[in-house]
Amino acid sequence: MKKITYLIFIAIFFSCESSREVEEVNLYSQRHYAVDELQYENFTKLTGIKVNVTKANADELIQRLKNEGDKTEADLFITVDVGKLWQAGDMGLLQKINNDIINPNINQSLLDKNNYWVPVTYRSRILVYSNERVDKSELSSYEDLANDKWKDRILVRSSSNSYNQALMSSLVANLGIEETQKWSAAIVKNFARNPKGNDRDQVKAIAAGQGDVAIVNSYYIGLLLSSQNEEELNAGKSVSVFFPNQGENQRGAHINVSGIALTKNSKNKENAIKLIKYLQTDEAQKTYVNNTYEYSVNPSISPNEIVRGWGDFKMDDLDLNLLGSKRDEAIRIFDKSGWK
Amino acid sequence: MSSKKKLVVLLLITLILTIPIIVLIFSTIGTNLSNFNYLWDYLLVDYSINTIKLVFMTIFFSLLFGVLPAWFVSTTNFKLKKIYDLLLYLPLAIPTYIMAFTYSDIVSYTGPIQSFFRNYTPKFAEIINVDYLQIEFLSILLSLSLYPYVYTTCRIAFSRIGTSYINLSKTLGLSEFSTFFKIAIPISRAAIFSGLFLIVMEVLNEYGAVNYFGVNTYTSGIFRAWGPMVDIQTASLLAVFLFIVVALFFILERYVNSKYKFNYAINTSVRSYFPNSKIKYVIINLVCLVPIILGFTIPIIHMLKNILKKSLNHDFFDVLSLTGNTIFVSIIASIFIIIFSILIQFINRISKSRLNKILGDVVSLSYAMPGAVIGIALILLFTIVGKFFETLFIGSFLVLIYAYVVRYMAVGISPIKSSFEKQPESIDQTAQSLGLKTANLLNKIYIPINRSAIIIAFLLCFVDIMKDLPLTLILRPFNFDTLATQTYEYAIEEMLARSSLYSFAIVFLGTFMLIILKNTLNKEIDVS
């Protein structure tokens, strides 16, 4: 028994004291797609800098960053919801980035006005509708989903999902609390079922006839349409994509950014900046769009073929930080209107 | 060892194991109650009702899946008995969230069942085309992966009832039906209760599956406060309340356990107590096969089907390396749990002080906290410790292993505790009269005599830690993945097929451990 105990202590000791001589950069990431690993491998090949990653959900990583304080090993923080980047900035966990680090080709409306984060990809929260039961002309905007004609026809996941929280924040920012509250109360009455499942499940529910219109992130449709499972493919084909709020005087479809930020207490700042720069290069941006169904932040890089098929769309050019700062109001609206 | 020394050792161990919870409780002092009141007004009542519903439904189905098979396997001789006995444990190897995601996929509109019927009998397909993401279905799925806790405890209890009770019951003219309800169940209620306790804990901790099913439970409220409301104090406060409620139940369980202490006639060899008829044979097979097929066979087949899809380029090397990681942390943490459990129980046993007994129980309470909350508690604790030592501990294996030990102590301590309690005291006296010192008493008597229980405790810990998700996600070092985290990452990115290989590896590893456990258990309860 004693021997075993000694061995364990030795093992733990060595595992804690792994050598940190090599050039490296440490990342806290909410992103965990296969493409990310590919990006980091490519970066390492190019620069020789090793990328260490800890993946968890954004709230947990923020908590860790906050408590680790100036001792944190994390140099960078990546999220799939810009609201969380705003939050980290607001909590004083990030440091500002110089303008010269930002690739001038990036769509200006996607940039952080406070210079705390840099966008790497973006996605839109769009509508999909049943080809059988909905005519495209019936759809217009997010606001219109509160209309009585959609009673028992709307599908969406729960309010604990951060993509929904970001969408609601955008409505608060655009329409004000009162209007958004009214909208939320009305749309909840139109739900075909209690919010549940993930985004793909909403599409499947349309295929199954449980509802007619769903609010989902654009890239999940791409995933369904490229599925090797014939049934999933059929489900994907039974719906069409609609970008809401595209009218002349309308603000455009809601988008959310996956972005990267430099932590306040970064110890490998130079390497971290190299990685931030790399992720904005054409090469990295092409890697993103070819392996996921996200949009590139560089307008000159066109998205994946499936995504291209949906056509161009006008995006809501709201200051993206509002997706974070309006979050608290958004949550209260969800709860008061009974959006589970 | 003097009694003071014993108390100091025990206090030290207890402190090590409970300090994260203590820090958490202190951190809630001065919480601004506005968010709490808000949550209470809008969500918590509804969430609490959901939680109670889910807990009771899961208890109901777990009893259904677990108790009757345990009765038949323990008291009746039939073909396949040994195989059933083993297979009935195996769903424990499937984490609840994997069970939920897998079944949701199977019964979904695009899943194999509905697709099949759409192709062959469209009318029937329409009938079964319903929304399966309901609380009732969720409770069945949770109980499918949790009923083995009840099965295990009942299996041991039933096989120890012994012939004397059964013969008495027969002499009194009771049928098997009456014997089961009037003798076996009342005698075994402590065992059933302790199995159910673990199940309730797991249901309260569950977050992934309940969120997916749109069933908001109390734990969802904790995450509501923590996540979008950015109020960690309120989240901790909610966790502390949950902790208190569970602690009360825990005390109740101990009370029930101590009140109903029966003298099991361990020495009776188990044989077939009741006559077999053809109908009974059919019933037995049905009762045993339903949980096995639903809880193990179907999910495994579905995983294998996903794995064998040629289109997915599996990285088998990655699976192997993550299996290595999983085994590494699970073994180390389990060993620590076992060492602490033995020490605590041994001191309890030789000192017989009431305070020591209470301390021994307190260390199990952290099982009542949601894993993610323990994670926060550890972060809070090591922020303080880190300032003191001027280094960062968070994100090291040390903290991760420590977290597992704190969280899963209850799993390891309970088999060791019950085994120690069964050991006749005359052994201690004889040993001491022969001049054996305390340390030798532990080394030469306690550890060898309770070897099976120690192995069982180790394996149970291993299986639970191997499945752990929340602690690993929050506290892991850079570039460290386990099978559970990888499965989860693919599953939440809605790539269930891709996650199958990793979940299969978890199940495979768990099954392997459970088979060893079963063999050890067989020796323990002497199933002939």
Describe the protein's architecture and organization.
- The complex is a heterodimer of chains A (340) and B (528).
- Chain A is built from 14 helices and 10 strands.
- By secondary structure, chain A is of the alpha/beta class.
- In chain A, β1 (24-29), α2 (34-47) and β2 (50-55) form a beta-alpha-beta unit.
- With 528 residues, chain B is mainly α.
- Chain B is built from 25 helices and no strands.
- Chain B has helices at 3-27, 34-75, 81-87, 96-107, 112-120, 122-128, 135-146, 148-159, 162-171, 176-187, 189-205, 208-212, 218-226, 232-259, 278-307, 316-351, 354-362, 371-389, 397-422, 425-433, 438-449, 451-467, 470-475, 483-492, 496-525.
- In chain B, α1 (3-27) crosses α18.
- Chain B is globular.
- In chain B, 51% of the residues are buried.
- At the A-B interface, α1, β2, α3, α7 and α9 of A face α2, α13, α16, α18 and α19 of B.
Key phrases:
heterodimer, A: 340 residues, alpha/beta, B: 528 residues, globular
Which oligomeric form is depicted? heterodimer
Average pLDDT over all residues of chain A: 92
Q: Would you identify the regions of chain A where 5 or more consecutive residues have pLDDT less than 50?
A: 16-20
Helix share of residues of chain B? Answer: over 70%
Q: Number of DSSP helices of chain A?
A: 14
What is the mean pLDDT of chain B?
86
Binned, the helix content of chain A reads 40-55%
What gyration radius of chain B follows from the Cα positions, in whole Å? 24 Å
**Total number of strands of chain A:** 10
Structural class of chain A: alpha/beta
Order of helices and strands of chain A: HEHEHEHEEEHHHEHHEEHHEHHH
Sketch the topology of chain B as an H/E string, one letter per element: HHHHHHHHHHHHHHHHHHHHHHHHH
Proportion of strand residues of chain B: under 5%
Broad structural category of chain B: mainly alpha
* Estimated share of beta-strand residues of chain A: 15-25%
3D shape of chain B: globular
Q: Which two chains have the most extensive interface, and how many residues on each?
A: A-B, 64 and 67 residues
Low-confidence stretches of chain B: 264-268
End-to-end distance of chain A:
52 Å
